[in-house]
Amino acid sequence: MESSSSPAHRGCIFPQGLLLTASLLIFWSLPTTAQLTIESVPPNAAEGKDVLLRVHNLPGDVLVFFWYKGERVNSNLQIVSYIAHTQAINRGPASSNRETIYPNGSLLFQKVTLQDTGYYTLEAIDKNFQNKQVTGYLRVYQSVRKPALRASNATVTEHKDTVVLTCLTNGIGISIRWLFKNQILSHKDRMKLSQDNSVLTIDPVRREDAGGYQCEVFNPVSSIKSDPLELDVQYDPTLSSPGFSDGAIAGVVIGILAGIALIAALVCFLYIRKTRG
């Protein structure tokens, strides 16, 4: 006779088996390989420094992989190859002998130059002779050089003169910003910048514009400031104050005349009243 505990025992086994089966299905449905990618470390490289093209998610069954200069596989542009099981390294026609290849597929460039800027392609072949390719980009910048600052006139007169400041630099692919008294310059209506920010015009100058000016050149890997240039703004008392234009002066004169007329009318009124009294 079958034990009365058997149905309870079977009822306990069934849900556990179902859960185990579901877990296995979920596990095997997950992707077994992630996407092959290339990362430049650092993203922007300074000329003369080392840069690593780091490979992420290289398959573990790779037999051999190749690096090429450019966006496509071309034997004439092959830099280096690596055979996994023998760890043999062979340099191609595009090698500069400054590259070091690693078993994880990453490629190190030593003392990069501006000519190293561009695309690089990795080709990986697995044990089933399946081919995978991925392309990355290496960007190299030249360290910026110290600019010089020149003024059309370092001594100017308030409300009379215009000053033009020019940032002299021969850098390529750089940006320029202006500083006043060691702070980023706050642009006013009287100030105008050229399209490339290399020329600053102040028209007219005021006493508040007096002080030290600098231009700073920079790119993603470096920056440097010019020596300060001191702008001297002098005051000429013979010039009318900028706060009183011709219209303002006319308004003041009219106001004064109106006040005199009002006072005269008031005196006349009081005199008549007193006479009649």
UniProtKB/TrEMBL annotation:
SMART domains: IG, IGc2. Pfam families: Ig_3 (PF13927), V-set (PF07686). Keywords: Glycoprotein, Immunoglobulin domain, Membrane, Signal, Transmembrane, Transmembrane helix. The chain crosses the membrane at residues 248-272. InterPro entries: CEA_cell_adhesion, Ig-like_dom, Ig-like_dom_sf, Ig-like_fold, Ig_sub, Ig_sub2, Ig_V-set. Residues 1-34 form the signal peptide. Residues 147-232 form the Ig-like domain. Belongs to the immunoglobulin superfamily. CEA family. PANTHER family: CARCINOEMBRYONIC ANTIGEN-RELATED CELL ADHESION MOLECULE 1 (PTHR44427:SF1), CARCINOEMBRYONIC ANTIGEN-RELATED CELL ADHESION MOLECULE 19 (PTHR44427). This is Ig-like domain-containing protein.
